[in-house]
Amino acid sequence: EAARVEGKREGYEAGYGDGMDASDRETAGLISTAEQIALHVSRERDALLESSESELVELALSIAGRVVNAAIEVDPSLVVDICRGAMRKAFQRESLTVLAHPDDLDTLREAGPKLVAELGGVQHLEFIEERRLTRGSLIVRTPAGEIDATFAGKTAKIADALRETALSRKVTDRNARNDAA
Protein backbone atom coordinates (compact mmCIF):
# COMPACT_ATOMS: atom_id res chain seq x y z
CA GLU A 1 0.00 0.00 0.00
CA ALA A 2 2.83 2.44 0.87
CA ALA A 3 4.50 1.65 -2.46
CA ARG A 4 1.26 2.37 -4.29
CA VAL A 5 0.83 5.72 -2.48
CA GLU A 6 4.48 6.57 -3.13
CA GLY A 7 4.10 5.66 -6.83
CA LYS A 8 0.94 7.73 -7.07
CA ARG A 9 2.69 10.70 -5.45
CA GLU A 10 5.72 10.40 -7.73
CA GLY A 11 3.45 10.11 -10.77
CA TYR A 12 1.49 13.15 -9.65
CA GLU A 13 4.67 15.19 -9.09
CA ALA A 14 6.13 14.13 -12.44
CA GLY A 15 2.87 14.94 -14.23
CA TYR A 16 2.55 18.22 -12.38
CA GLY A 17 6.16 19.17 -13.24
CA ASP A 18 5.66 18.23 -16.90
CA GLY A 19 2.43 20.25 -16.97
CA MET A 20 4.13 23.29 -15.43
CA ASP A 21 7.01 23.03 -17.92
CA ALA A 22 4.54 22.83 -20.80
CA SER A 23 2.59 25.76 -19.38
CA ASP A 24 5.79 27.82 -19.01
CA ARG A 25 6.77 27.07 -22.63
CA GLU A 26 3.31 27.99 -23.86
CA THR A 27 3.28 31.22 -21.81
CA ALA A 28 6.74 32.16 -23.12
CA GLY A 29 5.51 31.55 -26.67
CA LEU A 30 2.43 33.70 -26.08
CA ILE A 31 4.54 36.49 -24.57
CA SER A 32 6.90 36.36 -27.55
CA THR A 33 3.95 36.49 -29.97
CA ALA A 34 2.41 39.42 -28.06
CA GLU A 35 5.74 41.30 -28.18
CA GLN A 36 6.00 40.69 -31.93
CA ILE A 37 2.44 41.92 -32.45
CA ALA A 38 3.10 45.04 -30.35
CA LEU A 39 6.27 45.78 -32.35
CA HIS A 40 4.40 45.27 -35.63
CA VAL A 41 1.54 47.56 -34.53
CA SER A 42 4.05 50.20 -33.41
CA ARG A 43 5.83 50.09 -36.77
CA GLU A 44 2.55 50.25 -38.67
CA ARG A 45 1.42 53.22 -36.57
CA ASP A 46 4.72 55.01 -37.22
CA ALA A 47 4.47 54.30 -40.95
CA LEU A 48 0.90 55.62 -41.04
CA LEU A 49 1.84 58.79 -39.17
CA GLU A 50 4.89 59.30 -41.35
CA SER A 51 2.95 58.84 -44.58
CA SER A 52 0.18 61.23 -43.52
CA GLU A 53 2.43 63.80 -41.85
CA SER A 54 3.16 65.85 -44.96
CA GLU A 55 -0.52 65.80 -45.91
CA LEU A 56 -1.44 67.06 -42.45
CA VAL A 57 1.14 69.87 -42.73
CA GLU A 58 -0.26 70.88 -46.12
CA LEU A 59 -3.81 70.82 -44.74
CA ALA A 60 -2.82 72.98 -41.76
CA LEU A 61 -1.07 75.49 -44.03
CA SER A 62 -4.05 75.61 -46.37
CA ILE A 63 -6.37 76.29 -43.45
CA ALA A 64 -4.01 78.98 -42.17
CA GLY A 65 -4.04 80.63 -45.60
CA ARG A 66 -7.82 80.72 -45.62
CA VAL A 67 -7.89 82.16 -42.11
CA VAL A 68 -5.43 84.92 -43.09
CA ASN A 69 -7.40 85.76 -46.23
CA ALA A 70 -10.66 85.86 -44.29
CA ALA A 71 -9.09 88.07 -41.61
CA ILE A 72 -7.83 90.53 -44.24
CA GLU A 73 -11.26 90.58 -45.90
CA VAL A 74 -12.81 91.49 -42.55
CA ASP A 75 -10.06 93.93 -41.52
CA PRO A 76 -8.02 95.21 -44.48
CA SER A 77 -5.83 97.26 -42.10
CA LEU A 78 -4.07 94.03 -41.06
CA VAL A 79 -1.95 94.43 -44.18
CA VAL A 80 -0.55 97.62 -42.63
CA ASP A 81 0.70 95.61 -39.63
CA ILE A 82 2.29 93.10 -41.99
CA CYS A 83 3.95 95.94 -43.91
CA ARG A 84 5.17 97.61 -40.70
CA GLY A 85 6.74 94.34 -39.54
CA ALA A 86 8.50 93.83 -42.87
CA MET A 87 9.73 97.43 -43.02
CA ARG A 88 11.16 97.14 -39.50
CA LYS A 89 13.40 94.33 -40.74
CA ALA A 90 15.04 96.66 -43.26
CA PHE A 91 18.52 97.78 -42.22
CA GLN A 92 18.66 100.41 -44.93
CA ARG A 93 15.37 102.29 -44.92
CA GLU A 94 16.09 105.41 -46.95
CA SER A 95 14.31 104.10 -50.05
CA LEU A 96 11.70 101.37 -49.76
CA THR A 97 9.46 99.90 -52.43
CA VAL A 98 6.56 97.75 -51.29
CA LEU A 99 5.04 95.29 -53.75
CA ALA A 100 1.48 94.37 -52.79
CA HIS A 101 -1.74 92.84 -54.08
CA PRO A 102 -3.90 95.40 -55.92
CA ASP A 103 -6.68 95.16 -53.32
CA ASP A 104 -4.23 96.11 -50.56
CA LEU A 105 -2.71 99.16 -52.26
CA ASP A 106 -5.24 101.81 -51.19
CA THR A 107 -5.00 100.76 -47.54
CA LEU A 108 -1.19 100.77 -47.68
CA ARG A 109 -0.93 104.10 -49.50
CA GLU A 110 -3.23 105.65 -46.92
CA ALA A 111 -1.03 104.32 -44.09
CA GLY A 112 2.24 105.26 -45.83
CA PRO A 113 2.83 108.62 -44.09
CA LYS A 114 2.12 107.09 -40.69
CA LEU A 115 4.53 104.21 -41.40
CA VAL A 116 7.25 106.66 -42.47
CA ALA A 117 6.77 108.68 -39.27
CA GLU A 118 6.78 105.58 -37.05
CA LEU A 119 9.87 103.94 -38.50
CA GLY A 120 12.10 106.92 -39.18
CA GLY A 121 14.90 107.08 -41.71
CA VAL A 122 12.56 106.53 -44.67
CA GLN A 123 13.05 109.22 -47.31
CA HIS A 124 11.20 107.51 -50.14
CA LEU A 125 8.35 105.00 -49.85
CA GLU A 126 6.59 103.64 -52.90
CA PHE A 127 3.78 101.10 -53.20
CA ILE A 128 3.59 99.07 -56.41
CA GLU A 129 0.91 96.66 -57.59
CA GLU A 130 1.96 93.03 -57.90
CA ARG A 131 -0.91 90.84 -59.11
CA ARG A 132 0.95 87.58 -58.41
CA LEU A 133 0.86 88.23 -54.66
CA THR A 134 -2.07 87.11 -52.53
CA ARG A 135 -3.90 89.52 -50.26
CA GLY A 136 -1.82 90.34 -47.21
CA SER A 137 1.42 89.28 -48.90
CA LEU A 138 4.16 91.85 -49.45
CA ILE A 139 7.67 92.13 -50.74
CA VAL A 140 9.68 95.08 -49.46
CA ARG A 141 12.59 96.09 -51.67
CA THR A 142 15.44 97.92 -50.00
CA PRO A 143 18.86 99.08 -51.21
CA ALA A 144 20.26 95.96 -49.51
CA GLY A 145 17.80 93.42 -50.96
CA GLU A 146 14.28 92.13 -50.52
CA ILE A 147 12.24 91.25 -47.46
CA ASP A 148 9.78 88.47 -48.15
CA ALA A 149 6.57 89.08 -46.24
CA THR A 150 4.49 86.81 -48.44
CA PHE A 151 2.16 84.22 -47.02
CA ALA A 152 3.95 81.60 -49.13
CA GLY A 153 7.30 82.63 -47.64
CA LYS A 154 5.97 82.48 -44.10
CA THR A 155 4.26 79.14 -44.59
CA ALA A 156 7.41 77.71 -46.17
CA LYS A 157 9.31 78.62 -42.99
CA ILE A 158 6.59 77.04 -40.86
CA ALA A 159 6.56 73.91 -43.03
CA ASP A 160 10.35 73.66 -42.77
CA ALA A 161 10.15 73.97 -38.99
CA LEU A 162 7.43 71.30 -38.82
CA ARG A 163 9.44 68.97 -41.05
CA GLU A 164 12.54 69.55 -38.93
CA THR A 165 10.55 68.77 -35.79
CA ALA A 166 9.12 65.63 -37.38
CA LEU A 167 12.58 64.49 -38.48
CA SER A 168 13.98 65.12 -35.01
CA ARG A 169 11.10 63.16 -33.48
CA LYS A 170 11.72 60.23 -35.87
CA VAL A 171 15.39 60.11 -34.90
CA THR A 172 14.51 60.26 -31.20
CA ASP A 173 11.89 57.51 -31.61
CA ARG A 174 14.28 55.32 -33.60
CA ASN A 175 17.01 55.78 -30.97
CA ALA A 176 14.55 54.92 -28.19
CA ARG A 177 13.49 51.75 -30.03
CA ASN A 178 17.13 50.78 -30.57
CA ASP A 179 17.91 51.38 -26.90
CA ALA A 180 14.93 49.25 -25.88
CA ALA A 181 16.00 46.38 -28.14
Structural write-up:
The chain is 73% helix and 12% strand. The radius of gyration is 34 Å and the shape is rod-shaped. α1 (2-74) runs antiparallel to α4 and α2 (78-88) crosses α3. It is α+β, with helices and mostly antiparallel strands and 181 residues long. It has helices at residues 2-74, 78-88, 102-119, 151-180; strands at 95-100, 124-129, 138-142, 145-149. The relative contact order is 0.10. A four-stranded mixed sheet has the order 2-1-3-4. A hairpin with a 2-residue loop joins β3 (138-142) and β4 (145-149). The chain folds into two domains: 2-69 and 157-180; 75-149, Hypothetical Protein Ychn, Chain: A, CATH 3.40.1260.20.
Q: Classify the oligomer.
A: single chain
Total of DSSP H or I helical runs spanning 4+ residues: 4
Separation of the first and last Cα atoms: 57 Å
Query: What's the β-strand tally?
Result: 4
The residue fraction in helices comes out at over 70%
Low-confidence stretches: none
- Global morphology: rod-shaped
Give the spatial strand order of the biggest sheet. 2-1-3-4
Architecture blueprint of SSEs:
Layout: H1 2-74, H2 78-88, E1 95-100, H3 102-119, E2 124-129, E3 138-142, E4 145-149, H4 151-180
Parallel strand pairs: 1-2
Antiparallel strand pairs: 1-3, 3-4
